[in-house]
C-alpha cells in the first residue's frame, strides 16, 4: 500500500464480551491499516463486528468488553500506551465519527449552534462570535439550506438527513485527519443517501481526510472506497482493492454478498441469498466460520480455521479461494 | 448539489417555537392543569403574605370564644370566619400560616430527595453492572419494600419527632422513586449515539453525567418532583397527625387535625377545614403534575 507509515494501524485486534462462562468474540484477530487520505470500506452483515471494531479503536468499548491488540496506533502514536483520558483527548480532535441513527446522534437538549460551537471549542479557543461564525460556515459546508436559521434550532426540529448533516459538520469541526462513518446512510431514504454520500466524499477529497466507511451496502463501497475489508463473524475474510474485489472476489462469502446485490440479479425472480445466519457466541463452528453456510465447503474447512492467505493482490481467509489454486 | 431544492428560500415565518413556549402551549390545553396552577399560585401567595392577610396571630388564644362555629357575626369584637379551635385560636389564620409550612415541607423534602436521588441514580446508571450499582439499587429495593409511612415513622423514631426531622424522613422515603426514575432515564439516554459522540470528543464521566445526559432526563424528574410535593405534604400531615411531625402550637395542617380529633362529632369545622386544605393543595399539585407530564411527554405530542 502506502510507503509512508499509515495514519491508523491496527494489528491483531480482538474484542471479547464475557457471556456466562464463555465469551462472545465480537472482533477476532483483525488487522488493517488506513493511509492518510485513503477511503477504506468495511462491509459485512449485521453482527459481523464492524461497529465494535470502530468503537474499540476509539476506546469506547465499555466494561465488560475486553480489547486486546498487538498494536493500535494513530499517526504513529500507540493508543494502548496511553490512558483512556489521554486517548480521548488525542482522538477528539483527530478522529471524527458519524453514527448510524441521526435521530439520536445529537443531544436533544441543546441547539445546533451550541453543539457545533462546543465541538469547535475543542481545538480552537476563539471568541463566541468567532466560533459562531465558524459554526455557520460548517453548516454551509455540509450544504444545509438556510443555515443561519438552522443554528438556533433543536435537534427534534430537524429531519433525519438534516441531522446527519449537522452530525457531519460536528465531525469535521476540528479538521480531523480521519473520519469514521458507521453506516452513515442506512437510516436515510434513498435520495438523501446519495446526496449524503456525495457530500461525504466531497469533504473527504477537499480536506484530504482519511475515511473509514462502515456499511452493509456493497453498492456504496463500490462507488466510494479504494480498499475494502469484508468482515464475517468478527473476522476479516477478504481484503482487497475495490476494483479487485468486485472483479474477482476470492472468498465465497464475498461472492455471495456480490451475488445478492439487486443490480446483479436483473431478470432473476428470486434474489440470490446465503442460507443461515452469522454464528453467535454459542454456535461457532470448529472450522471455518462460514463452513455451515458455504456452498463450496469441504472436509478441511470443517476441521480447521483458515488463516488469511495472499491470493493474487488480495488477502482471503479461505483454503479454496475462488479462481485460484487451493492453499497447501 | 440538488439546486432546485436548496436555493428556494424557506419562509421565515415558520420559525419553530422555543421549548418554553411550546411547553406552555401544550400545558394550557389541559384545563385541570391550569386550574391546579392557579390554585398553586394562590397557595404561594398565602404562604408568602401569611402575616399580612391572616386576621389574627395563629397562636393567639381567645379563651371566651373556644370552639366557635364559622360565622360572620362578631364574638366579643372578633370575627372568626372559619370558626375557632378547642383553645380558641382562629382557624383561618392557622390555615393560612399552615400553607407556608406545607409548601416549605414540600420544597425541602422534594429538594433533598430529588438532589440525592439524581446523584445516586446517575451513579447507578453510569456504573451499570458494577458494585456501585448493586449497592445503590438493592438498598433502594429494600426501602421500597417497606410501607412508606412505616418507614417514615421509623426514621422519625430514630431522629426524634419534630418538623425538620419529619421532612428528612419524608425525603428518605421518597428517595427510591427518584433514584429509580433517574437511573431508568439515564440508561435510556446512554444507549444513544450522542453520548458516544460526546465521549469521543473527550468528555469525562462528570461532564457526561451532568452536562450531556442529565438535561435529557429532566422531563420525568420534573413531573415526579411536582407529584412528590403532594405526597410530601400528605406524609407530613400524617406524621403530624401521629404526633411525630410538627409539635403544638405550630399551625401545621396534620397536627391541627390530630389535636381536634376528640371534637369530630361535636364541631365539624375543626377537622373538616384542615382536611379540606390538605385535599385542595394535594389536588392542585397532582393536577399540575399531570398537566406537566402530558406537556412534557413527547409521545403525547402531535
Question: Top keywords for this entry?
Answer:
heterodimer; A: about 325 residues; alpha/beta; Rossmann fold; eight-stranded mixed beta sheet; five-stranded antiparallel beta sheet; 13 strands; globular; B: about 300 residues; mainly alpha; MetI-like fold
Description:
The complex is a heterodimer of chains A (328) and B (302). In chain A, helix 3 (112-121) crosses helix 4. Chain A has a single domain, classed as 3-Layer(aba) Sandwich (Rossmann fold), CATH 3.40.50. Helix content of chain A is 31%, strand content 22%. Chain A has helices spanning 50-57, 84-94, 112-121, 128-141, 147-150, 160-171, 190-207, 218-224, 242-247, 252-259, 299-303; strands spanning 8-19, 22-34, 39-43, 66-68, 71-74, 77-78, 95-98, 178-182, 210-215, 227-232, 235-241, 309-311, 314-316. With 328 residues, chain A is of the alpha/beta class. In chain A, strands 7-8-9-3-10-11-13-12 form an 8-stranded mixed β-sheet, with helices on both faces. In chain A, strands 1, 2, 4, 5 and 6 form a 5-stranded antiparallel β-sheet that branches. With 302 residues, chain B is mainly α. Chain B has a single domain, classed as MetI-like fold (Orthogonal Bundle), CATH 1.10.3720. Chain B has helices at 3-7, 19-28, 31-48, 50-53, 91-126, 131-145, 148-159, 163-190, 193-200, 205-213, 218-241, 253-259, 269-296. Chain B is elongated. The two termini of chain B are 33 Å apart. Chain A binds chain B through residues 55, 58, 60, 63-64, 85, 88-89, 91-92, 95, 97, 99-101, 104-110, 118-119, 122, 143, 145-146, 149, 153-154, 156-157, 167, 170, 195, 198-199, and chain B through 1-2, 5-10, 12, 15-16, 19, 129-130, 192-194, 196-204, 212, 215-216, 218, 298.
Amino acid at each position: 500500500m502506502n510507503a509512508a507509515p499509515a495514519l491508523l494501524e491496527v494489528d491483531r485486534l480482538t474484542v471479547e464480551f464475557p457471556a456466562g462462562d464463555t465469551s462472545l468474540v465480537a472482533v477476532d484477530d483483525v488487522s488493517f491499516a488506513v493511509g492518510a487520505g485513503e477511503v477504506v470500506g468495511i462491509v459485512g452483515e449485521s453482527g459481523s463486528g464492524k461497529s465494535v471494531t470502530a468503537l474499540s479503536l476509539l476506546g469506547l468499548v465499555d466494561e465488560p468488553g475486553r480489547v486486546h491488540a498487538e498494536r493500535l496506533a494513530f499517526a504513529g502514536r500507540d493508543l494502548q500506551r496511553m490512558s483512556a483520558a489521554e486517548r480521548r483527548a488525542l482522538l477528539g480532535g483527530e478522529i471524527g465519527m458519524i453514527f448510524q441513527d441521526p435521530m439520536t446522534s445529537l443531544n436533544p437538549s441543546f441547539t445546533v449552534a451550541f453543539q457545533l460551537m462546543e465541538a469547535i471549542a475543542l481545538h480552537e479557543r476563539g471568541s463566541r462570535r468567532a466560533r459562531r461564525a465558524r459554526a455557520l460556515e460548517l453548516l454551509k459546508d455540509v450544504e444545509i439550506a438556510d443555515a443561519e436559521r438552522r443554528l438556533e434550532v433543536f435537534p427534534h426540529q430537524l429531519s433525519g438527513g438534516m441531522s446527519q448533516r449537522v452530525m457531519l459538520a460536528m465531525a469535521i469541526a476540528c479538521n480531523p485527519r480521519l473520519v469514521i462513518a458507521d453506516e452513515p446512510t442506512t437510516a436515510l431514504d434513498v435520495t438523501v443517501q446519495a446526496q449524503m454520500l456525495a457530500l461525504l466524499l466531497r469533504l473527504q477529497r477537499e480536506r484530504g481526510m482519511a475515511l473509514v466507511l462502515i456499511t452493509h451496502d456493497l453498492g456504496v463501497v463500490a462507488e466510494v472506497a479504494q480498499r475494502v475489508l469484508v468482515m464475517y463473524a468478527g473476522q476479516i475474510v477478504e481484503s482487497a482493492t475495490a476494483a479487485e474485489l468486485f472483479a474477482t472476489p476470492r472468498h465465497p462469502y464475498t461472492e455471495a454478498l456480490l451475488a445478492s446485490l439487486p443490480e446483479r440479479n436483473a431478470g432473476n425472480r428470486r434474489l440470490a441469498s446465503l442460507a443461515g445466519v452469522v454464528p453467535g457466541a454459542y454456535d461457532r463452528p470448529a472450522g471455518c466460520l462460514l463452513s455451515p453456510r458455504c456452498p463450496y465447503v469441504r472436509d478441511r474447512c470443517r476441521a480447521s480455521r483458515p488463516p488469511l492467505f495472499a491470493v493474487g493482490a488480495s488477502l482471503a481467509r479461505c483454503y479454496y479461494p475462488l479462481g485460484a489454486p487451493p492453499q497447501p | 448539489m440538488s439546486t432546485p431544492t436548496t436555493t428556494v428560500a424557506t419562509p421565515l415565518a415558520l420559525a419553530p417555537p422555543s421549548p418554553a413556549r411550546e411547553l406552555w402551549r401544550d400545558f394550557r390545553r389541559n384545563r385541570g392543569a391550569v386550574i391546579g396552577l392557579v390554585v398553586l399560585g394562590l397557595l404561594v401567595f398565602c404562604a408568602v403574605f401569611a402575616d399580612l392577610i391572616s386576621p389574627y396571630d395563629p397562636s393567639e388564644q381567645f379563651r371566651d370564644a373556644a370552639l366557635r362555629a364559622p360565622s360572620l357575626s362578631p364574638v366579643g369584637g372578633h370575627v372568626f370566619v372559619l370558626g375557632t379551635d378547642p383553645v380558641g385560636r382562629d382557624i383561618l389564620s392557622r390555615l393560612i400560616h399552615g400553607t407556608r409550612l406545607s409548601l416549605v415541607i414540600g420544597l425541602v423534602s422534594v429538594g433533598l430527595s430529588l438532589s440525592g436521588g439524581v446523584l445516586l441514580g446517575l451513579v447507578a446508571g453510569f456504573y451499570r453492572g458494577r458494585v456501585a450499582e448493586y449497592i445503590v439499587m438493592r438498598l433502594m429495593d429494600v426501602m421500597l419494600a417497606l410501607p412508606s409511612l412505616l418507614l417514615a415513622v421509623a426514621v422519625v423514631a430514630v431522629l426524634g419527632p419534630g418538623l425538620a426531622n419529619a421532612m428528612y424522613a419524608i425525603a428518605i422515603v421518597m428517595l427510591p422513586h427518584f433514584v429509580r426514575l433517574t437511573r431508568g432515564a439515564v440508561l435510556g439516554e446512554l444507549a444513544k449515539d450522542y453520548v458516544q459522540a460526546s465521549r469521543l470528543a473527550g468528555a469525562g464521566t462528570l461532564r457526561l453525567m451532568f452536562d450531556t445526559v442529565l438535561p435529557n432526563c429532566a422531563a420525568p424528574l420534573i413531573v415526579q418532583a411536582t407529584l412528590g410535593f403532594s405526597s410530601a405534604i400528605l406524609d407530613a400531615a400524617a406524621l403530624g397527625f401521629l404526633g411525630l411531625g410538627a409539635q403544638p402550637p405550630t399551625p401545621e395542617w396534620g397536627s391541627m387535625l390530630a389535636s381536634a380529633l376528640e371534637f369530630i362529632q361535636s364541631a365539624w369545622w375543626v377537622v373538616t377545614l384542615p382536611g379540606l386544605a390538605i385535599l385542595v393543595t394535594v389536588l392542585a399539585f397532582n393536577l399540575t403534575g399531570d398537566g406537566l407530564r402530558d406537556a412534557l411527554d413527547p409521545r403525547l405530542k402531535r
